[in-house]
Amino acid sequence: MNTNINNINTNVGTVKTDVASIKNTVTSGFKPAVMTPFSYVITKGSGSYTIDTWYTLINITGEGELQNVLSAVGHGNGSNMLRVTIDGVVKYYGKTPESYNGPGGVIGMTKLDNIFNRPDYGEPFMGLSATNDFNLGSVVTYPYTGGGGGVSLIDIPIRFKSSLKIEWMPQVRTTDTHYVFATGGVF
């Protein structure tokens, strides 16, 4: 019996030693990624765009992460579309409502902690510019390519390995202002 206990002690000691050597090997080869952040904000009023034309807002080749991408129309009867392509695959494709009287509906992808309640309205809103907050509207899954309105709520930034492309298309002529906001980083 003592021989078996000695064998167990020897084997456990060996495993502990092996785990320690594995840990040293893994941590010595680890290099943290350095991210160069990007932030893209546009505010376009009537006449500063052509309707039914796709505009490429961000076109990145390389590795990185997308933290937020949101688009909205201010008060009025405008609409826009947003398309996000990650590593060559469309991951989000949505459109704001064509007629919305009140704070414009938001489309895109964002983290849950960007949503706040407006006590005066009693419904969820999100800030998209320094002077405007917008009705959250509906929540959709990620990925979302249904072409309707809605925001995908994401827990963590979305990684891309080879490319990120964000496109925006204003629709329905309006005197209103369109907003697009995107943040992330490139490694």
Short description:
The protein has 187 residues and is mainly beta. Helices cover 14% and strands 46% of the residues.
Tell me about this structure.
The protein has 187 residues and is mainly β. It contains 1 helix and 14 strands. Strands 1, 3, 6, 10, 11, 12 and 14 form a 7-stranded mixed beta sheet that branches. A 4-stranded antiparallel beta sheet has the order 2-13-4-5, with no helix packed on it. The longest helix is centred in the first third of the chain and has 27 residues, at 2-28. The model is unreliable at 22-28 (pLDDT under 50).
Observed structural traits:
46% strand; 7-stranded mixed sheet; 4-stranded antiparallel sheet; mainly beta
Secondary structure elements and their pairing?
Elements: H1 2-28, E1 36-44, E2 55-61, E3 64-73, E4 79-86, E5 89-95, E6 106-111, E7 115-118, E8 123-127, E9 133-135, E10 139-140, E11 151-154, E12 158-160, E13 163-171, E14 178-186
Parallel strand pairs: 6-11, 10-11
Antiparallel strand pairs: 1-14, 2-13, 3-6, 3-12, 3-14, 4-5, 4-13, 7-8, 8-9
Q: How much β-strand is present in the residues?
A: over 45%
Task: Give, in order, the helices and strands.
Answer: HEEEEEEEEEEEEEE
Rg value: 24 Å
User: With helices defined by DSSP (H or I, 4 residues minimum), what is the helix count?
Assistant: 1
Number of E-state strands: 14
Question: Unreliable runs, pLDDT <50, ≥5 residues?
Answer: 22-28
Biggest sheet record = 7 strands, mixed
**What is the end-to-end distance?**
57 Å
What's the mean pLDDT score?
75
From the spread of the alpha carbons, the general shape counts as globular
- Kindly name the structural category: mainly beta
Instruction: Estimate the helix proportion, in percent.
Output: 10-25%
